[in-house]
């Protein structure tokens, strides 16, 4: 039987969030399966996922990696798994409730109805819809998005969005192994490759809420990667070497 939707959640030290989140995602729709890609979280996140597997059985998948290998490679591994297993729609989502699981059905419906090939849960589609971020983080994210949009020409406001639904044909069409970015630039690269390959990106306005449990994994190297990576993507697209 063809499988419908796989939601991929990368995790690093999300023990205080993951069990509750798994339950809330499964409550949305019985056609949703979940894949957690955990990078050997020292706080035992993977053990909690295994516990939840006793309750949710084959709907809940887990890939365990040996150490913190980055958000980008976690998603690429998740995408390959989703394609191999035959899922039609593959979603990305953070583990920390910044993304509200109640928004998942709308993102999935947008792709399922043929309205978009990638439905992007956007914090900047209707002004700024972010709750509880410090001003410094808001300014950084907002200006990073203006910068990435200006250089790449991407037709979306939230280029670094990490909440989305993707039709499997997009992941097949762009060859996910080509993706090189590993931090939040991964999101820009995925959007850029999809758009350059002719797929349709549409934004769905969401409200993004700062996490209450655990900490962000943002670092200086993640910011630097985003700054230079947009230029290499643009240059590669000009020379046809993307
Ligand atoms: N497996 C794995 N997961 C990771 C890693 N680094 C982060 N994660 C997981 O990836 C998700 C997002 O990481 P956060 O560290 O919580 O991100 P954030 O600072 O809140 O960043 C948000 O904004 C970014 C920039 O706009 C977005 O790009 C990002 O997706 C997210 O929505 C969380 O589920 C976190 O556990 C890693 O190296 N490996």
UniProtKB/TrEMBL annotation:
<dbReference type="GO" id="GO:0016020">
    <property type="term" value="C:membrane"/>
</dbReference>
<keyword id="KW-0328">Glycosyltransferase</keyword>
<dbReference type="GO" id="GO:0009247">
    <property type="term" value="P:glycolipid biosynthetic process"/>
</dbReference>
<keyword id="KW-0808">Transferase</keyword>
<dbReference type="GO" id="GO:0004582">
    <property type="term" value="F:dolichyl-phosphate beta-D-mannosyltransferase activity"/>
</dbReference>
<feature type="domain" description="Glycosyltransferase 2-like">
    <location>
        <begin position="7"/>
        <end position="172"/>
    </location>
</feature>
<comment type="similarity">
    <text>Belongs to the glycosyltransferase 2 family.</text>
</comment>
<dbReference type="InterPro" id="IPR001173">
    <property type="entry name" value="Glyco_trans_2-like"/>
</dbReference>
<protein>
    <submittedName>
        <fullName>Dolichyl-phosphate beta-D-mannosyltransferase</fullName>
    </submittedName>
</protein>
<dbReference type="InterPro" id="IPR029044">
    <property type="entry name" value="Nucleotide-diphossugar_trans"/>
</dbReference>
<dbReference type="Pfam" id="PF00535">
    <property type="entry name" value="Glycos_transf_2"/>
</dbReference>
<dbReference type="InterPro" id="IPR039528">
    <property type="entry name" value="DPM1-like"/>
</dbReference>
């Amino acid at each position: 039987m063809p499988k419908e939707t796989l939601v991929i959640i990368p995790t690093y030290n999300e023990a205080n969030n993951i069990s509750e989140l798994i339950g809330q995602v499964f409550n949305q729709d019985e056609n949703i399966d979940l894949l957690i890609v955990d990078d050997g979280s020292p706080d035992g996140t993977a053990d909690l996922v295994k516990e939840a597997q006793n309750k949710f059985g084959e709907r809940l998948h887990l890939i365990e990696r040996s150490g913190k290998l980055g958000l980008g490679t976690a998603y690429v591994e998740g995408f390959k798994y989703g394609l191999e297993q035959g899922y039609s729609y593959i979603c990305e989502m953070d583990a920390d409730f910044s993304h509200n699981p109640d928004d998942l059905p709308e993102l999935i419906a947008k792709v399922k109805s043929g309205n978009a090939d990638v439905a992007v849960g956007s914090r900047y589609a209707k002004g700024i819809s972010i709750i509880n971020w410090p001003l410094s983080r808001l300014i950084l994210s907002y200006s990073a998005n203006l910068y990435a949009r200006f250089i790449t020409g991407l037709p979306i406001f939230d280029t670094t969005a990490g909440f989305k639904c993707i039709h499997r044909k997009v992941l097949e069409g762009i060859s996910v192994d080509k993706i090189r970015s590993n931090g939040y630039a991964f999101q820009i690269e995925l959007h850029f490759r999809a758009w350059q390959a002719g797929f349709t990106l549409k934004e769905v306005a969401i409200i993004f809420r700062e996490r209450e449990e655990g900490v962000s994994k943002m670092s200086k190297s993640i910011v630097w990667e985003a700054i230079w990576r947009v230029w290499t993507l643009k240059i590669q697209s000009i020379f046809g070497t993307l």
